[in-house]
Each structure stands twice: as C-alpha cells, then as structure tokens.
Amino acid sequence: MLVLLPPSETKHPGGAGAPLDLCSLSAPELTPVRARLVGALMDLAADPAAAREALGLSPAQAGELARNAALRTAPTLPALERYTGVLYDALDVRSMTRAQRARADRRLAVGSALFGLVRGTDAIPAYRLSAGTGLPDLPTLRTLWKPVLGPLLARSGELVVDLRSGSYQALAPAAGAVTVDVLSERPDGSRSVVSHFNKAHKGRVARLLATTTAEPADVVRLRALLRRAGLHVEHDGGNRLTLVVPAAEVVRRA
C-alpha cells in the first residue's frame, strides 16, 4: 500500500542530517527535475524582491528566502519529520513504535512541488515552494512533473491511497488511486464538505494506514479496514471513499 500525503507550507527548522544529496533520494528518475528546481529556487533567492513576488511572500517572511538560498548546505531531516501542521500533528510519527514507524516509512510518501515525491526516510532541508507557484523562465510545475512523476505513480504495483490536496494531485494524477472525501454530518442528517479541519481527519486516516499490520489490496478491503477502526466510511462504487464525521467531532477532535 502506498499512501500519498500533501506537504505543508510550514516546515520544522534545522535538522541533524547531512546537507541535501539529490542522488540519495528515492525515485532517482526524478533527480533531473529536482536538480533543476533546486537551482532555480537558489538563483531566485538571490533577488529577494523577485523571490517574494514569485513565491507570494511578505517582507516579514525573509526567513523563507534564506531557506531556499541554503538548499544545498542546510541540515536535513527525514521527510516525515520535516513537514508540520494539522495533518502531520494528527499523523504524529514521533509517537509511533519502532515497528509502526518502519511501516510508515515504507508506506507513506509526500507529494512535493520541489522534490516530486519523497519517502518517509528521504533527508530533505526546509524549503518554500507551493504547487501553484510559477518560477521565472521555467515551465509550470505540472509541465515539469507530470511526464516523470505520473509514470512513477502508475507503476507502483500497490494499492495507492491519494490523500493529496487538489493542487498536488494536479501535478501528476495517480491513475486508479483511491481518494478520500471528508464530509460533516449534522444531527438533522444534512452534510457539508469539511474544509478547515479536513487535514486533521486525513491525518488520522494516514496514521491508521501507516501503522496497521493489514495489507488491503483494493478499495473494498480498504473500506472494511477503516470501518473496523470505527470510522464511518461510505463507498458508492469506483475508487472514491467518503469519510463522514459528526459535526460535533469536526471541531472537538481537530
């Protein structure tokens, strides 16, 4: 099973790992695009005004530019420890047992605008680049990533559960992947899309899938696994699952 996670704008700072070595990252076929984007971000950081405009940053976010300027020299962290925010708080890899963390490292991968896809143990620095960013003198990120990342995902040979946000799915869709929508259900039975707390619930799903000893081979078995864990999951056919969360739980547990 391969579970695709979105990245986060926020990153844990620092790290104890050696500086970025693109050749050591998983999926070496992505190295040429990774190298091109790393070089472009470092060059862009040398012009703070242009970098802030391209990356959508305010003058107060100068630290983000400093991170991009130091991509090849900054210390690294494993990818699952680099990203932070609501989804990663719910995933909470630091609380996992050794066996659970080993499964998480095998099963989880993060979609990244800069690196394409990174596995849990891939050592990466903090950086700033979003899926919708346009970089000067380069094609769109979708144009760069889709030809190399799309085939990589297509030949995974595993059940793929795609929890990425829409902008990261657009960089390279994972054909045949199971997706999960989150809906809030009110006491009267009416439902609405969960927006702000969507990441927290997907983070809990990701933790379950990362740590379970089960190996679901298709969407039906995946649905059964989630239901056994006490989640209200609906499947109307195809590869889309709907996680239904009581309205009171949306806020209380997020």
From TrEMBL:
<dbReference type="Pfam" id="PF03883">
    <property type="entry name" value="H2O2_YaaD"/>
</dbReference>
<dbReference type="GO" id="GO:0005829">
    <property type="term" value="C:cytosol"/>
</dbReference>
<protein>
    <recommendedName>
        <fullName>Peroxide stress protein YaaA</fullName>
    </recommendedName>
</protein>
<dbReference type="GO" id="GO:0033194">
    <property type="term" value="P:response to hydroperoxide"/>
</dbReference>
<dbReference type="InterPro" id="IPR005583">
    <property type="entry name" value="YaaA"/>
</dbReference>
